[in-house]
Structure formats: C-alpha cells, structure tokens
From TrEMBL, chain A:
Residues 38-273 form the ABC transmembrane type-2 domain. It comes from Streptomyces lanatus. The keyword Transport applies. It is a multi-pass membrane protein. Belongs to the ABC-2 integral membrane protein family. This is Transport permease protein. It holds the Pfam family ABC2_membrane. The keyword Cytoplasm does not apply. Keywords: Antibiotic resistance, Cell membrane, Membrane, Transmembrane, Transmembrane helix, Transport. It is found in: Cell membrane; Membrane. It comes from the Bacteria. The lineage of its organism: Bacteria, Bacillati, Actinomycetota, Actinomycetes, Kitasatosporales. The chain crosses the membrane at residues 40-59, 71-94, 115-141, 153-178, 185-212, 251-270. InterPro entries: ABC2_TM (IPR013525), ABC2_TM_bact-type (IPR047817), ABC_2_transport (IPR000412), Nod_factor_ABC_transporter (IPR051784).
From TrEMBL, chain B:
It comes from Streptomyces lanatus. PROSITE patterns: ABC_TRANSPORTER_1, ABC_TRANSPORTER_2. Belongs to the ABC transporter superfamily. It holds the Pfam family ABC_tran. Keywords: Antibiotic resistance, ATP-binding, Nucleotide-binding, Transport. It comes from the Bacteria. Signal peptide: none annotated. This is ABC transporter ATP-binding protein. Residues 284-304 are annotated as: Disordered. Its main location: membrane. The keyword S-adenosyl-L-methionine does not apply. It is a peripheral membrane protein.
Length: 297, 304
C-alpha cells in the first residue's frame, strides 16, 4: 500500500518536473525568438506585406458593402497561421534535429516531453502574436476588420484553435520526415505557395477553374480562411461566398479531420525520428552538410 | 576493488548485423564502478555501434547487455537520469546563454549539481552570459561536459572528447575526468583515437578490431597480450646504427654486452608503446583471412 503510494507520488513529481521544464523551455525559446532580429524581421515583413496589399486593394466585395481589403486581410491571417504550422514549425524541427537538440533531449530524462510542450507553447505564442499584430496594425492603420461582438471573437478563437490543430501536427509530421534544413524549405515552399494561390484564401477564387477549386478545397487553408472571414466580416458579406454562406459546420468538420489525420501521422513519425537519433547519425548529417556547403562554395 | 559489486556495464556475446554485414561479432565487456575505460579501435571497427547500444540509442541483434542493472533497450527516464553523454558533434542550443542552458538542464534531474559551481569546475564562469555559438571549440566541449554531468550521472559516455583541444585544454579536461572518477566514483566509458589520452586516463583499455575485442586490460598488460615487441637500438663497433625487435629485450642486451669488448654506444631499449601495440593489432587483423581470425582470437585467449 505504502509502496504504491510512493510510486504514484514519484510519477506525479516526474510529470510536474517535465511540464515545468517544458514551460520554462518554451518561455526561453520565445524570448530568443523575440530577440532574434532576423526572424522577427521575417514575421514583421508578413504584416507589412498585408498592410501594403490592404492599402492598395480598393473597391468592395462584389454584391456587398464590405471593403475588398477586409476579405484580403482575413485571408492573410489564415495564411499566416497556415505558414506557422506548415513552414516555420517543420523548418524549426529539422534545423534543431540537425544541430542535435532532439538527441540532447532524448539523452535527458523527460526531455522529449518537455521539448514537445515547449514547441506547443512556442507555436501558440507565435500564432497569437502574429494574429494580434496583423489585426491590430491593419485596424489602426488601414481601417482593417475586427470581430463584431462576442460571437465574432468566439468564432475567431475556435477557428484559430482548430486551424492550428489542423496544421501544427501535420507540420510536425512533415518536420519529422524532411531530410535537412536546406532541402526542407524547397520541399515545403512550393506546395504551400500553390495552395495559397488556388485556395482563394487571399484572392477570391471564382476566377479559377472548378477542378482546381475542388482540389484546393481538400486542404485546410481554404476553410481556415473562410472561418476567419466569418469571424471578421459582417454577416452580409457571406453573399460573396461560393456557397452563399459561411459553412461553419463544414469548416469545423474539415479542420477536425485534418487535426485527426495530423495527429495520426505525427505521433508515430515523431517517435520514429526521436528513436533514430544517435551520435553517429548526427555526425553523418554534419558531414553531409559540410560537403554540400563545400560544393556550393 | 569491487569484485563483489555488480559491474556497471556487463556485455556478453554482443552481436550486431546490418543486413548481411556483421559489425559486432561477439563482444564481451565488463566495466566496474569508478573505472575509466577506454574503447579503442580503427574507424569501422564497431566502436560507435557498441557505445550507441550501451547508450540505449540502438537495438542490438543479439547478446546480453546490462548497463546500471538495466537492459538499455528498456531504459526509462530514471535510468536515463543516471547516465551522462558527451558527444563530439553537438552544436545544439546555439542561441542560448551558457548559464541559462546549464540551469535549464539542471531542472530535469532529481538531484542536480549547482550550475554556478559546475561552470567553475569546467572553467566557463567568465563565459556564463555568453551566447553558446560564440564559444571556442574547446569551451563548447567543456560546456558539453558540464551538461553531461549536471545530473550527477553514475556513468558518463565520452565520445572523442578532446578532438580539437589545445594541449592545455586537454590537460585540464583530463584532470576533470580523473577527478570525477576518483573522487565521485563516476564510471567513464571513453572512445578515442588519441592513444596518449587513453594511456594517460584509462584504468582499462579494450581494443575493438573488426567487431571483436582483440585485447583488454590495463595499459601495461596490453603490450604483453598483443605480443608486441620491444625495440633495441645501438651503434655497432663499425659505427653503423643498428636496431632489432625482440620479445626479450633483456636477453638481447645481455648478448650484446657479452659479445662486446666494452660499453655499447647509443644503447637504447624502447618498450612497446600503446601505439605499437595498437598498430600491431590492427595490422595483424588486416593480414588475416576470415578463417584465420578465429585462430588468432584463440591464440590470444591462451596467451592471456
């Protein structure tokens, strides 16, 4: 009896220690991100691009009194969330794996758990920060959209949460299989850009062939954008949607499906990536990196 | 000294095959508490594979492995907390500050060392607030050592720890490792290509060649096991320099004196160094056919 009690106590002490280590780690990583001028520049550029586009887009959404710029900003917000999950996160995972962070965490008791906790914290903070900056800056400078009333804020919250759940595990799975940071960017950039153009997230898609629209509708970006539009635009603007409504149940369904798929892929792939980490593998990757560096020079 | 205590590492008939290629063909090891144990061998001999199996990072094909009383393939967090790892190619956490990183990793362990004291031990107090990627190669490795021992491990794996060190940094590193083993009873498994380092640090040295342990023992015993020969040099009466290799240097010198009419010019006896022993082992292996290796192994077992 006493022994069982002791074991349980130890378990919860261990779990608490891991959670604390993970939260501390996430906080430190976030601080490093905020202090890194190069990366901050990248994120700020996104917001500046959105501002410029919003300032230049004129006219209203066809058939509604809503400014076209609002629709573009809502789409851009969805794209930035999408990018955090499917470009920034895999890039980060591959780079850290190559440097040996994953191996270090594997060699540390509870390290992998803490690593994942820290990454979740980092991604949520990045997403919240990006959204706040984008919506705040556009609202202040170019009269951009903000949710109207509690209902709008609630929609913004659940679409953002579900959208992140749809792309973050998927991004983690991609990060687990990509070979190295140099090829990683090329491999994920192209499909993402294609999706950006075809999904109608930022630019209305009625101009695109139906087949292309249907393919793009399989991926989460279109639904994230549609959900954010419903949160940010006045209800009357739904007249301009392809379906003539926001299709919120469908948004929830598609994003949930991607979240489930992402988790199903990410858990075994991340486990495999961590299991395969060893000193010799890390050295081999470093040698390869040096060779390709030497060839490029 | 701890014949009764269970060894920290016990390996019996460890085998590893990648497809058709046998990398380890029956390795036996026994490493005791507080020992500094050096594993030597040419590239491709299976050193890395052996160590990664012991670290729990690689699944073996066969044999029994026991590290700190646990099979590393089933090592949990509690087991992990009793081991420390220093690898040569770590370049992680570049943006972190030195003290920040060490303090963070201390939080993972139940009874960590004091990070500030540890920085002092590895001589990085002046760099405490420096970013990790601004450290020199030697400083970076000393930080890796600090990270490896922050959780007070009972067993420390050191993989080529002093590659790229200048002589002074190397000396300081050796003093640190000796202190860990002597004063705190930490068991150290060291893989290195630096034979002088192995001779300086190790209580026990094992030579792994072609997936088998070819010799194992205290540095002084190894030469005898390997039957490496001493070299005798002198200058003959006609002024020509002479050298001869022999297993019995004393007899050769006595014979020389018996035949000579007076002192022998430039007489010098060179005992086989660890390097001689090592090269002798590796070369003999190169000359062997596969069928021959078993005979050699048997011969060694009898000689030992």
């Amino acid at each position: 009896m006493r022994e069982t009690h002791l074991t349980d106590g130890t378990e919860s002490v261990l779990a608490r220690r891991r959670l604390r280590a993970g939260l501390q780690r996430g906080g430190i990583e976030l601080r490093h991100l905020l202090r890194n001028p190069k990366e901050m520049f990248g994120h700020l550029t996104n917001v500046v691009v959105a501002l410029v586009i919003a300032a230049y887009v004129s006219g209203d959404v066809p058939g509604t009194p809503t400014p076209m710029a609002h629709l573009v900003i809502a789409g851009f917000a969805a794209y930035l969330l999408f990018q955090i999950g499917l470009i920034n996160l895999p890039q980060l995972l591959v780079t850290e794996r190559e440097e040996g962070v994953l191996l270090r965490m594997r060699a540390t008791p509870g390290g992998i758990t803490a690593y994942l906790v820290a990454k979740c914290l980092l991604v949520v903070a990045m997403a919240a920060g990006t959204l706040a900056l984008l919506l705040g800056a556009t609202a202040l400078l170019v009269d951009g959209p903000l949710p109207r009333g509690p209902g709008g804020w609630l929609t913004l919250l659940w679409v953002t949460t579900l959208g992140l759940l749809a792309v973050v595990p998927l991004g983690a799975a991609i990060g687990a299989v990509l070979p190295n940071p140099r090829e990683a960017l090329a491999l994920i950039m192209l499909p993402t850009m294609a999706l950006l153009v075809t999904s109608g997230a930022v630019f209305p898609i009625t101009a695109l062939p139906v087949a292309v629209q249907q393919v793009a509708a399989v991926f989460p970006l279109k639904w994230m954008a549609q959900g954010l539009r419903s949160a940010l635009l006045p209800d009357a603007a739904r007249a301009a949607e392809v379906a003539g409504s926001w299709e919120l149940p469908k948004v929830a369904l598609v994003l949930t499906a991607w979240a489930v798929l992402g988790f199903l892929l990410a858990i075994p792939l991340l486990r495999r990536a961590a299991r395969r980490e060893s000193g010799s593998r890390m050295s081999a990757r470093h040698r390869k990196a040096e060779q390709s560096g030497a060839l490029a020079a | 000294m701890t014949t009764l205590a269970q060894p920290v590492i016990q390996v019996r008939d460890l085998t590893m095959a990648y497809g058709d290629v046998d990398v380890l063909r029956g390795v036996d090891l026994e490493i005791h508490r507080g020992e500094i144990f050096a594993l030597l061998g040419p590239n491709g001999a299976g050193k890395t594979t052996t160590v990664e199996i012991l670290e729990g990072f690689r699944r073996r094909s066969g044999g029994q492995v026991d590290v700190l009383g646990v099979d590393p393939e089933r090592g949990d967090d509690a087991w992990r907390a009793r081991t420390g790892l220093v690898l040569q190619s770590w370049r992680d956490h570049r943006r972190w500050r030195v003290a920040e990183l060490l303090r963070h990793f201390a939080t993972y362990y139940p009874d960590p060392r004091d990070p500030a004291e540890l920085l002092d031990v590895v001589g990085l107090t002046a760099q405490a607030d420096q970013q990790v990627d601004r450290l020199s190669g030697g400083q970076r490795r000393r930080l890796d050592v600090a990270l490896g021992i922050v959780g007070r491990p009972e067993l420390l794996f050191l993989d080529e720890p002093t590659t790229g060190f200048d002589p002074e940094a190397r000396h300081e590193f050796h003093v640190l490792v000796e202190r860990l083993a002597r004063d705190e009873g930490v068991t150290v498994l060291l893989t290195t290509h630096d034979l002088a380092e192995a001779e300086r640090l190790a209580d026990q040295i094992a030579m792994l060649v072609s997936g088998r342990i070819r010799a194992c023992g205290a540095p002084s015993e190894l030469a005898r096991q390997a039957a490496a020969q001493a070299e005798v040099r002198w200058t003959a009466a006609d002024g020509t320099p002479r050298r001869e290799r022999t297993a019995d240097a004393s007899r050769l010198v006595w014979e020389l004196h018996r035949d000579a009419h007076g002192p022998i010019a430039d007489l010098e006896v060179r005992r086989p160094t660890l390097e001689d022993t090592y090269l002798h082992m590796v070369h003999r292996e190169d000359g062997d056919t596969d069928a021959g290796t078993d005979e050699t192994a048997n011969g060694e077992a009898q000689a030992a």
